[in-house]
Amino acid sequence: MTDDSRETGPWIRRFHPAPEARTRLVCFPHAGGSATYYFPVSRALSPAIDVLAIQYPGRQDRRQEPCVEDIEELADLVVEELGPWKDLPLTLFGHSMGATLAFEVARRLEAAGTSPGTLFASGRRAPSRVRDERVHLADDDRLIADITQLSGTDAAVLGDPEILRMILPAIRSDYKAAETYRYRPGPPLGLDIVALVGDTDQQVTADEAAAWREHTTASFELQVFPGGHFFLDSHVAPVLDLIRARTSALTVGS
């Protein structure tokens, strides 16, 4: 067995190191989310796929660090952290805000000569589709109401005022990053894109998800699942099968 005990640093969580893996999946959390959201994904895909989950500043063990409220800046920082991890073919998976961030990371990786194999864009409209959203400017009650409606936060957390006070700054900052993001026109990516969406998601319509097709010259696939914004939580198995199918052909040097 190959020894691969390299340091991950504060930005990357590697819950189940897979030194024999031939591909690497990089996961980007949703607004207010943390790397631990992808712990079950890492456990399920290891050891065939080496899973890295991005940990944004301002949450969990990074709670004392200032949040990054700009997607472009966040993408620059993540790409720098991924430098040592490009020894295997990369695949990117992002949910909600994380999908937009994964897209900007993919643009930067391609520009630097490292094209990921596939971008999985989950629960997010295409970068070129804009909505005028200003939840990040609302008071705490409105913000809590919004995240409660999306069901992206544990009900026990929402009912604990002390925990809420701790996590709301990160959620608000992430909302600001997502809502103020504006796509910079540029050449489409050269990688495959798979868009995933829930059929009752109020945050993104199937048409908005299908518009991801405009952002690649390679193949595009739209997968619609029953459920709302966090349809992922109820459809883990088929999503994992999609990831496995898309990464099975990737090898070092491909």
From TrEMBL:
This is Alpha/beta fold hydrolase. It comes from the Bacteria. Transmembrane segments: none annotated. Keywords: Hydrolase. Signal peptide: none annotated. InterPro entries: TEII, TesA-like, Thioesterase. It comes from Streptomyces poriferorum. Residues 26-247 form the Thioesterase TesA-like domain. GO terms for molecular function: hydrolase activity. The keyword Hydrolase applies. It holds the Pfam family Thioesterase.
